[in-house]
Structure prediction request, 277 residues.
Amino acid sequence: MPINYYIFLSVALFCIGIVGVLTRRNAIIVFMCIELMLNAVNLLLVAFSKMHHMKALAADVATTAGTDGQLFVFFIMVVAAAEVSVGLAIIVMMYRNIHSVDINFLNRLKH
Amino acid sequence: MGVTQILFWFLSVVAIFSALMVVTAKNPVYSVLWLIATFFAISGHYILLNAQFLAIVNIIVYAGAIMVLFLFVIMLLNLNKETEPQKNRWLKVAGAVAGGCLLLVLVAALKDADIKSQTALVNTGNIGLIKNLGKELFTTYVVPFEISSILFLSAMVGAVVIGKKE
Prediction:
């Protein structure tokens, strides 16, 4: 597939995530939209890794060029999993203190 | 139009439609379920790109673990359509316009980029298989791999410390 199809698909998913962050007030859904943006980036990294691999394949048949792109995706998933566990703990604590997940209650970082 | 193209367009439409439903669904539980559908579509794209290890990890880690955690928290806090906080209409319109402007700018900037002839290799290529990725991960990237285990440990301790009642 031409690489620009993947670029436009990832850009569309990323922008949908940004619209979600800007338009929703539920902290959990804002968090989910951030996950969506991370996944858009992951998809683009895999597509670029395959593009790089295809270019290297012309010179050398047994090349492993492009593996690093996919390993970056793996590390992004690792960091996202750690981030989600801490972030959801923060949201649960916030709900325990103010009995709401509305991010507008926290817009002055006090209470 | 081959079967690869048909699958690409089908998965893209599914991914974008379910991503839109994540943002527009009123009930948070439906948002989570649509996000799982998005992740499955993205995993389908990974399989199409022959990145099978990442496709499986995406399903297991994202759809299996992270999304279940989200669903668990939403059900624990008993969130539903009635308790869902709503922004006022003008802020929603402003957010949608701002996101649309970003989309417009990115598409306009990338439209004329000199990448028209580049293609991503689909269906073939064995760099996405677990053998090659594992070899690379445990030789070149072994230090980041071990550091990420420390990151997980600190995230676990942090989640417990934040979550416990003082």
